[in-house]
Write a structure and sequence with these properties.
Layout (H helix, E strand, L loop, with lengths): L1 E6 L2 E6 L6 H8 L18 E4 L2 E4 L13 E2 L12 H8 L9 H14 L5 H7 L10 H15 L6
Helix pairs in contact: 2-5, 3-5
The structure holds FE2/S2 (inorganic) cluster (FES) (2 copies).
Length: 158
């Protein structure tokens, strides 16, 4: 079936199989490989993108479900050559080792800060509980979210 989806502010028409996931379309059809494949079953968060303002595991979303819902991937956070404050904070805190989890962590953090600009430690833990970092960088990731909270407050970006 042919569907039209909006990704990072651009409309794309793609032919999809009913079994194809949003993650597969993003990576394989649109070349947006910043979104990672980890578990493929909604348990690791590596594939997290924004659907509207909500963080979702794109490996669990049928591609056709994205019709009418603006999708933002890690590639869509940068504006006019400037990284999003959450991206800047992850760099400042060196909140990654292999970085395989990083785009998912950042997208989940962006969703958190949009909904809760001044999150508590519990808010951060809850928001990231389905995002797994196999390198164990959690303390730096939490520090990055805290750092971003100050600068992202009141900021409506993606
Ligand atoms: S690849 Fe989607 S949650 Fe793990
Ligand atoms: S930095 Fe390696 S999985 Fe998180």
């Amino acid at each position: 079936m042919r569907i039209e989806i909006q990704v990072n502010g651009h409309r794309h028409t793609v032919d999809v199989d009913p079994s194809q996931t949003l993650l597969e379309v993003l990576r394989d059809e649109l070349g947006l490989t910043g979104t990672k494949y980890g578990c493929g079953e909604g348990r690791c968060g590596a594939c997290t993108v924004l659907m509207g303002s909500h963080a979702v595991a794109s490996c669990t979303i049928p591609a056709q479900s994205a019709v009418g819902a603006p999708i933002t991937t890690i590639e869509g956070l940068e504006h006019d050559g400037h990284l999003h404050p959450v991206q800047d904070a992850f760099i400042a805190e060196e909140a990654f080792q292999c970085a395989y989890c990083t785009s998912g962590m950042i997208m989940a953090s962006v969703a958190l800060l949009r909904a809760t600009p001044e999150p508590t430690a519990d808010d951060i833990a809850r928001a990231l509980e389905t995002n797994v970092c196999r390198c164990g960088t959690y303390p730096r990731i939490v520090a990055a979210v805290r750092r971003a909270a100050a600068s992202v407050s009141g900021d409506q970006r993606p």
